[in-house]
Design a protein that fits this description.
six-stranded mixed beta sheet, 2 domains, D-Maltodextrin-Binding Protein, domain 2, about 40% helix, Fructose-1,6-Bisphosphatase, Chain A, domain 1, 7 helices
C-alpha cells in the first residue's frame, strides 16, 4: 500500500491530467466546461479513494462518499477543481486540484496539483522556503474583488497586492515564494484550503486564523471563516495589524 502522502500526490496529478485533457478537447461554453471538469475530477477522486482507501470517508465540494464520516477521525477532504472560472478561461494557469487527509482535526497528508503549470506540491516532499529578504511584501488577493481589509493591511505594512485566481493557487504561490502572504476573511469551506494549508505547514510557513488561532479541520460543519498563510518572518507584523482591526471592529 502506498503511503498517504504519495497517494494524495498521485491522485491530484491524475485528476489534474484529466482536467487538462478535458480543457484541451472541449468546445463547450464556459459554464458547461466547468461543470464537466468538476464532475469528471470528482468522480475520478472518489472512485480512486474507494479502491485504495475503502475504510476512509471522503468530504468533497460535491458531497460525501464512502463510509459515514465521523468528525475527528480519518477523512479525505478534496476539491476536484479549485478555480472553476480560471479553468474555463483559455491560457489561465491559476487553478488547482486539492487532495488532503485529515485526522484528529489536522491535515496529516496533502497534495495540490497546478495542472496547467505541470506542478504537484505535496507533504511528502514539501518545497524549501526561499531565503531572500522581504523588502516589500507581496500579498495574493482575488482577481475581481480584493477585500477592503486586505487593501488596508497592505497600506499599513507597505505591501503590494498581487491578483490571482483560486485559493489553492494563492496559497501555493506563497509556498513557491511567488508571493509572501495570503489573507482571507470572507469565509471558505474546508476543501478550499485543507490541501494547500497542509503543504504550506509542511514547508514551514505560518498558517492560522486571522486572530492567530489554529486552523481546525474535519469538524461537523466544514465552514472555515478566515485564514492566514504567510512567510514566518511576516507573521508578527500581519497578526498585529489584523489584531488592531479585529479590536477596532468590536
Amino acid at each position: 500500500m502506498s503511503d498517504d502522502h504519495e497517494l494524495a500526490a498521485r491522485l491530484a496529478r491524475r485528476a489534474g491530467e484529466r482536467l487538462v485533457e478535458l480543457r484541451g478537447g472541449s468546445a463547450a461554453e464556459p459554464r458547461a466546461l466547468g461543470d464537466a471538469g468538476d464532475a469528471a475530477a470528482h468522480q475520478l477522486l472518489v472512485e480512486a479513494l474507494a479502491q485504495e482507501r475503502p475504510a476512509d470517508p471522503v468530504l468533497s465540494e460535491h458531497g460525501v462518499a464512502g463510509p459515514e464520516r465521523v468528525p475527528g477521525e480519518r477523512v479525505w477532504v478534496v476539491d476536484p477543481l479549485d478555480g472553476t472560472r480560471e479553468f474555463t478561461e483559455p491560457g489561465r494557469a491559476d487553478w488547482a486540484v486539492h487532495v488532503a487527509l485529515a485526522e484528529r482535526h489536522e491535515v496529516i497528508a496533502s497534495a495540490v496539483a497546478l495542472p496547467a503549470q505541470g506542478i504537484v506540491l505535496h507533504t511528502g516532499e514539501p518545497p524549501k522556503q526561499p531565503t531572500r529578504a522581504i523588502e516589500r511584501p507581496r500579498i495574493a488577493v482575488s482577481r475581481s474583488r480584493p477585500p477592503e481589509f486586505v487593501t488596508a493591511i497592505a497600506a499599513e505594512i507597505g505591501a503590494d497586492l498581487v491578483p490571482m485566481g483560486s485559493a489553492g493557487a494563492k496559497i501555493t504561490a506563497v509556498v513557491l515564494g511567488e508571493v509572501d502572504a495570503y489573507l482571507h476573511g470572507g469565509g471558505q469551506y474546508e476543501w478550499d484550503s485543507a490541501a494547500p494549508v497542509g503543504v504550506a505547514r509542511a514547508a514551514g510557513l505560518h498558517t492560522s486564523r486571522l486572530d492567530g488561532t489554529e486552523l481546525v479541520y474535519d469538524r461537523p460543519d466544514p465552514w472555515l471563516p478566515d485564514l492566514l498563510v504567510c512567510r514566518r518572518e511576516l507573521a508578527v507584523d500581519l497578526l498585529a495589524a489584523l489584531s488592531d482591526r479585529i479590536e477596532g471592529s468590536r
